[in-house]
């Protein structure tokens, strides 16, 4: 249960990805990603330096795997999510991202067989109903007012779904193959990998005018808001999120970890509503409640089954 409590800290700051394009002024999403991931990588370097016997974990294979996972689950996911928010708006984007827990749960349980399907049907139904309620206003006239290009935003949203599901499965497999790897060290390697990727991409992106820092300025007077938000997201979303996800991935099957991410959709929609300066409707509030009920029920079923299995094993002994 501790893993669930730790992971529950993740969705609120991660869901703020949906409103990033609307709070950084004239700077681009790429500027924000650069600041965020460089700061996160510095934190990761500090963790690696302060960890005892860390060198035995810094093999080429581990480093390359961590960089790949950073690309898929953090740099790639962040850029597709924020791109979806720019083109599809801060309400429709998280509505499509609601597919993440559903797809992850189905694929994860299909691959791992962690729980019989009959035990997941009711929680899955609650999650589906909650997502419909939460995202019910996304495709109304009011929700569509912020859309620049559905044909660009929707594919980016679906790409983000694919990247996160891929990351969830690949990261848990990588951790399972490295039982001796401390979660903190693995998290630090992924953080450093994200920073390395953004720094490597910067010259290319700058030549394509994707970064506005060279023209708008690096000084605090011009970029202070960008730095403040970037550092905040780095510490809350990236560092905290990587650590919480890795801890939970070692304690729970993907089918359940996937359901814990549903609150990201709820918080993302709420963030979108704040952008539009309106209160959530009663149906949206009901959706959040039903989402939480589905998550709590699924985790409760999992731990009840684990407890029952333990009692049966002790009885046989």
From TrEMBL:
Q: At the top level of its lineage, which domain of life is listed? A: Bacteria
**Keyword Transmembrane attached:** yes
Q: Which UniProt keywords apply?
A: Membrane, Plasmid, Transmembrane, Transmembrane helix
Span-the-membrane segments of this chain are 7-24, 30-50, 62-79, 85-107, 119-138, 150-171, 183-206, 226-245, 252-277, 283-303
Q: What is this protein called?
A: Putative transmembrane protein
Task: Provide the species name.
Answer: Sinorhizobium medicae (strain WSM419)
